[in-house]
Amino acid sequence: MTAPYDLRRIRRLLLLLPAAARAARAGRGVPLAEAARLTGARSARQVVEDVDALSSLWVDPGEGDDLVHLYVEDGEVQALYTEPFGRPPALSLAEGAVLLAALAPFERDAGRPAREAARKLRRAIPEALRPEADRLARGLDVAAAPPAPWGGALREAIERRVETSLEYRAVADAAAERRVVEPRLLFHRDGQWYLAAWNVAKGEEHLFRLDRIVSVEQGTRVFGEHRGPPLARYARRSLYFDSGAEREVTLRFRGVAARLARERYGARARADAGGTVSVEVKVTPGNYLLGVVLGWGGEVTIEAPEDVRAQLRDRVEELKRLYG
């Protein structure tokens, strides 16, 4: 399987989780061979890949313990839950909609288990938000397979671990350039399909949008283990990855921005005097952060650290000179 959010992978995990939970209550795990039989996985190795893809899927790693920790130890799938299985915690609108959308293709064929799971998910969404969650779930683009013409060739290259040559446009109107890669993962995010692949010339992993690929040609060199960062990072909500330059930055939200900050950050949002809200975020100071703050039209300011506040002041003065 080639994607953490592939519907077939999600189905296998939905079958594996309750089995692992039952085994955990008996103080044991699910043997890999049994896990493959229960889920329909091709092999024990595919079960291990499914478990690896689940890492960091449920919550932002910086927001506390995972809802479920699934891991392989001594040839068995083990499960640890921070909440009792069958009693999901309250879900946000987006979380509930995505899970409902993932279950929808299986409700008819899987029968009662899938319908019961969907019923429990709906109950976990705050009642006032359930109609909106159902509406969003019906409209979500949860793609089951990467599109033609390159999806099939890239899936095959990933499975066979064959070095592949891409003609690729880095931006939509740029000239196509040849990239030799070791393809690793196909995944879908925000309406786009991406290929994560090891760039042989640069010695690092890159992301390639499938709609910017001009041609795909499989080579003859078979490579070994996939190189690159853990696949779990592609299961996060965004494609922003830590660079090592991140810092703790305090933002203050006012007006409408304060209300939205409370909804987005929950317990991390601290109410201040005058109805404002402060939130500490871990982000790399620079153009991205300044653009986000300025995009709120004065309803968000940087409170700390002082040198990042100075960056914002300098940017505001620069804009005044440019547009004043």
The Cα radius of gyration reads 23 Å
Number of strands: 12
The major pleated sheet works out as: 5 strands, antiparallel
β-strand amount: 15-25%
Instruction: Report mean pLDDT, rounded to a whole number.
Output: 79
Overall shape: globular
Structural description of this entry:
The chain is globular. It is built from 10 helices and 12 strands. It has 3 domains: 7-139, no CATH class; 151-235, SH3 type barrels, CATH 2.30.30; 247-323, no CATH class. Residues 56-66 and 82-86 have low confidence and may be disordered. Strands 7-6-5-4-8 form a 5-stranded antiparallel β-sheet. It has a 4-stranded antiparallel β-sheet with strand order 10-11-9-12. A 3-stranded antiparallel β-sheet has the order 1-3-2. With 324 residues, the chain is α+β, with helices and mostly antiparallel strands.
List the helices and strands and how they pair.
Blueprint: H1 7-25, E1 30-31, H2 32-39, H3 44-54, E2 68-73, E3 76-81, H4 93-110, H5 112-124, H6 130-139, H7 151-160, E4 162-168, E5 177-189, E6 192-199, E7 204-209, E8 213-222, E9 247-253, H8 255-265, E10 270-271, E11 277-283, H9 287-294, E12 300-304, H10 306-323
Antiparallel strand pairs: 1-3, 2-3, 4-5, 4-8, 5-6, 6-7, 9-11, 9-12, 10-11
Helix pairs in contact: 2-3, 4-5, 4-6
Short synopsis of the structure:
This protein has 10 helices and 12 strands. With 324 residues, the chain is α+β, with helices and mostly antiparallel strands. It folds into 3 domains: 7-139, no CATH class; 151-235, Roll (SH3 type barrels), CATH 2.30.30; 247-323, no CATH class.
